[in-house]
Write a structure and sequence with these properties.
Blueprint (H helix, E strand, L loop, with lengths): L1 H39 L5 H22 L21 H15 L40 H16 L8 H20 L1 H11 L1 H9 L3 H8 L2 H18 L19 H25 L4
């Protein structure tokens, strides 16, 4: 009798384990299906796009602060400092970093746009299935040459102190980080344009068919929103870039690592206008 009970208990244990195993596998399959849905089904809406743009402001403001740590270091941008390379140290760093990042799949993401897309190596890592949200023409819209020119000729002189501290590699690295952040923010205009087009297709289609750039620009412009963005970015630069001390009375003599107006002017003069240029260019090809 004892032996019979032991065998019965053993069979019950095996049955319970089997049931648990089936439930576990079913749970894993269901979890995998949900995971795949969340990965492959990224949804772009006005709210999600707006949130992404706000987060990108943080990256840009911190990028300005990081670049301001170094002096202008003009040797980073002039002459042929690298033997066998026809270009500046900054170009050398950007081109070689982009090549490495391309090998690990950075530019498979439609949200990324290289500064030197010519002859980038293919990705060596398994391909990720990004959501095909944009019109195929989006891949050909890249205004990084304009961003590059504005960055070095207009933006840097507006907030970086003149002089040479010898930190050329660090300077080029901080330039790259800031350039990529600015580029990502401006080219995100393609996603903004697509969301707006899907929400008001009829309103946009007539302007697109008539190739009315001015009409599209007016439709995309909301001055009150742009002013809000500029004020928010300036406030972030004040908060993130404040020099903090523990001395009493210093609250009245606040100083900043970067003048907050630099961040506001960056958005006003370049980021917002160039983002709208990208949106218009994208929309003009939306019906191709």
């Amino acid at each position: 009798m004892g032996c019979f009970n032991m065998m019965l208990n053993f069979r019950l244990v095996i049955l319970v384990l089997a049931i648990c195993g089936v439930r576990y596998r079913m749970g894993m399959v269901k979890a995998e299906e949900l995971s795949l849905e969340s990965v492959k089904g990224k949804v772009y809406t006005l709210d999600s796009v707006r949130e992404a743009l706000i987060r990108q402001e943080d990256t840009i403001v911190f990028g300005l602060i990081e670049r301001a740590k170094f002096l202008m270091n003009s040797r980073t941008y002039g002459g042929e400092e690298i033997p066998g390379f026809a270009g500046s140290l900054a170009e050398f760093v950007v081109k070689n970093t982009e090549a490495v990042q391309a090998k690990v799949g950075r530019y498979n993401n439609p949200e990324e746009n290289p500064f030197f897309p010519e002859n980038l190596p293919p990705s060596l890592v398994p391909s990720y299935s990004f959501t095909q949200f944009l019109h195929p023409k989006a891949a050909s819209i890249n205004i990084n040459k304009s961003i590059w020119k504005i960055y070095f000729e207009e933006l840097l002189p507006s907030f970086v102190a003149s002089g040479d501290d010898g930190n050329y590699a660090q300077t080029a690295a901080s330039d790259l980080s800031l350039l990529q952040a600015i580029s990502r923010r401006i080219h995100y205009g393609k996603f903004v344009a697509e969301v707006k087009f899907r929400e008001s297709a009829q309103q946009y289609e007539s302007l697109i068919r008539s190739e009315d750039k001015e009409g599209l620009m007016k439709l995309l412009t909301f001055e009150s929103v742009e002013e809000t963005v500029r004020k928010r970015v300036e406030k972030k630069a004040m908060v993130f870039g404040q020099n903090v001390t523990l001395k009493n009375g210093d609250e009245k003599n606040v100083t900043y690592k970067v003048d907050p107006s630099v961040a506001a002017n960056l958005y006003k003069n370049w980021i917002i206008p160039l983002t709208k240029d990208v949106q218009v260019e994208y929309l003009l090809h939306r019906l191709d």
